[in-house]
Fold this protein.
Amino acid sequence: MSSARLLVIGWLFQLKMQWRDPFTGIFAVLYPMFFATVAFLMFRVHGGATSLLYAALGAGVMGIWACVSTTSGSAMQRERWHGTLEVLVASPSPFALILLPVTVAMSTIGLYCMVATLLWGRLAFGINFSVVHWGAFVAAVPATVVSIGCLGFLLAVTFVRYRTAWALGNMLEYPVWLICGFLVPLALLPGWVQPVSWVLAPTWGMNAIRQSALGGTPWPDLALCVGLGALYIAVGVLVLDRALAAARARASLSLT
Amino acid sequence: MAVIEAEDLKRTYKTSTGTIRRKTLEVEAVRGVSFEVGEGELFGLLGPNGAGKTTTIKMLITLLIPTSGFARVLGRDVVKEPREVRKRIGYVFGGERGVYERLSGLDNLRYFAELYGVPGREQRPRIDHLLDLVGLKGREQERVEGYSRGMKQRLHVARGLLHDPPVVFLDEPTIGLDPVGARELRALIASLTAAGKTVLLTTHYMFEADALCDRLAVIAQGQIVAEGTPESLKQLVADRTVVEIETYGVDAESVDRLRGIPGVASVWVEDRDQAQLVLVQSSRGLELTQTLLGHLDGVRVGRVAAREPTLEDAYVSLVGEGAD
């Protein structure tokens, strides 16, 4: 109970702080419209309401991933700059319960990207937003958000250990768009890329969202998405204690 | 039983230089520090910048793993039982970092109360009490970015006391504060031991150590060079006289000439705006003023005064000798 409470309070705290960050605000408002516009213009060439909705959903998940990949690294670096990383580590709470809400809050802000993308598609491009399986869609979107947050958590563990790893987050932003099939179907990618796609929860979350909106069988994809998210947490928790011990040994928790 | 125990603590940092031909350098920040702090005691770790005070405190609060040696807080090993140690200690450091500036003071305290396991029902009364104690009542809803340095420092103190820890570590808590703010904070620190807490304070302000500490250790270049009560440390220079000479443009060569005078124990130079204050410690009974002035030939000299040694002089002497 106290762990769940800590997670919820940490999540609300991080959400509140992120919304007050001008960078996050601009990021959240402008990026979805940018992603959506590029996607709609690309897919409009081949026409078809279905392909435009396919693009809209892909652009929405791109926004969620962009929020997590770029900000989870910078969030850890910001904690270092502000001297709060040491204060957090010095608290008796398990650090995983402190870190996980940071990245899940980032992906929650990314959820706004999904809504903004669909609205922008409707208003600027006249895309009709219709969903075949509403129940699955309502489950798939938050599950994808949380799973992407869990992937961000796994990345953040390395950001805690290595001071310069935050740059990795930025580097991962674009490859994941491709590898997870946000805009391009996975079948078009080389065969050797696909195993990488399979171990990334956003791949299955994207599939589940599309299958629930456009018609199909979203539940197996949704289960894989949630399962991988849980696996990321398990691996992250296992590695985190070692990462923290290494950071304490190498004095990398602070900048000085 | 000692509440804080440090035995032969050492800590080495590795740093690298160069881009292509990288060289790894090892810096010994703490070189075998040992001390004990008893229950309810206010123990000071006094030393200049870079002496190893913060590194020592970070090892004790589990943020750094010692290269060798061991430390215990309330009988718990800081390396093997970090979580148990963290439950029982509060940590406050000086400066403006360590708080979430975009949120209010109240948001900060609520979050940290949760992290420190303060039960939900106890949080609000506890936070209210601490806001009162540190003088932030009425300002808690404001964003921290609008706080003055002193207010942020008091917020740090409130954060460190949220879970009512029996042991409190204060790392240069008054650094950068205005005189009134620093005085208020010192009064607050004094009240902690009155409430039965054990306090370890690091500072490089002598008067602060003199006014607050029951016992203190002087640390220089990573080693403890003296330990005792402020009075006993003053006794180390009781047989000396201090001559203060205000100079304008004194150079290193002239200072070295002063050091060579028989009977001179130490020479220290403090910059004071345009002037430099040369502090010369010599054996009591020796009348060296004219000799000193004679060795400063060519240097413009202002006020000259002789006085009794203070704790600061003991510190200067110890740190100077430690540096040698």
Remarks:
- The radius of gyration of chain B is 22 Å.
- The domain at 2-229 of chain B is CATH 3.40.50.300 (Rossmann fold).
- The first strand of chain B starts at residue 2 and ends at 17.
- DSSP finds eleven helices and 14 strands in chain B.
